[in-house]
Structure formats: structure tokens, C-alpha cells
Amino acid sequence: MSAFLQQVPTLIGVVVGALGSYLAVTLGDRARFRREQAARQEDRRLTAYADYARSLKAMISVLFRVSAHFGNDPHPQPLAPAEANPRLANASEARDQAWEAVLLLAAPEVVDVAHAWARTVAEMERFARAEIHDPDAWSTLLRNQRVAREKFYIAARLDVSLPTGHPGRFETPPGL
């Protein structure tokens, strides 16, 4: 019995060591799993934000061309409203689908600025569909859209822990 008592501290050390190893591995795995989950979530949000931005940009590109048709925008390839309608419909459908991913994955602040950007694009669309010739009003709509887009990108970058980027403001020389 005394031999057994002499080995009890060794057995206790083995048990404590085994438990310690188990806890260390388990806690490490949990931490790694959480990091991987967070990274996957950020990737999903980034994809949703990029898809949403692309879908709005598709609408904006068509609207530039329609506005050029009415003499409001200097875009070199004007597009008649009848030709633009199918393109706008496709872009609108893509935007609606991308919006659902933004609603599902985005932080509330990003949803708010994404919605504000979409509202400014909707104002541009109403203006183009009304067939108005008013380059100054169009310029105001463009400025509002660019500000809304910039706010969206700032909020999206913050949400996915990206560094600040270029604001995307490019002035078009007159006549281009």
C-alpha cells in the first residue's frame, strides 16, 4: 500500500497534465473556430456589399446614358429611354436581390446608408423617366448620389474592418 501512496502524486500529476492539455486544446479550438466564423461572416458581408454596389452602379450607368439622351449628362453614348427600360429592369432586379443579402448580413448603420444611396438612385431614375432637360438639376442629383455612395463605402469598410479607401470622386472634364 505504501508503494501505491508513493505513486499517487505521480498519478495526480498525470491526470492534471491530461486535463490541462485537454482544456488548452479545447479552448484553442474554440478560439480558432470563432476567428474563422468571424472571417467567414466578414467575407459574406463584403460580398453582399460589393454585389449591392455593383447592382446600383449598373442602374446609374444606364441612367447616365439616358440623361445624356436628354442633354443633361456629357456621357458619350446616349441611350433612348425605350432602349434603357430592359436594362433598368434587369439592374433593378439585381439590386432587389442584392438588397436582401444586405438586409440579412449588414450592420444597421450600413443598411441605413445603403437605403439612402438607393433612394438617391431612385430620384435619378424618376428624373430620367420624366424626360426633363435640366443639366443643373441633374448635376445636383449626381452630387447627392456620389455623397450617398461615399457614405455607403465608408460604413461598409468599417463593418468589414477594411482600411479607408479612395472616396471615388472623379471630375469629368467638360465635353467628355
Overview of the molecule:
It is a single chain. 80% of the residues lie in helices and 0% in strands. The chain is an all-alpha fold. It has a domain at 42-159: Four Helix Bundle (Hemerythrin (Met), subunit A) (Up-down Bundle).
Which labels suit this protein?
single chain, Four Helix Bundle (Hemerythrin (Met), subunit A), 176 residues
The CATH class of the domain at 42-159 turns out to be Mainly Alpha
What integer value in Å does the Rg equal? 28 Å
N→C terminal distance: 98 Å
* The CATH architecture of the domain at 42-159: Up-down Bundle
The total count of helices amounts to: 4
Indicate the overall shape. Answer: rod-shaped
Q: Strand tally, please?
A: 0
Q: Say what the CATH topology of the domain at 42-159 is.
A: Four Helix Bundle (Hemerythrin (Met), subunit A)
N-to-C order of helices and strands: HHHH
What's the average pLDDT? 88
| Beta-strand content | under 5%
User: What profile does the largest beta sheet have?
Assistant: none
Helix content: over 70%
Low-confidence segments: none
Broad structural category: mainly alpha
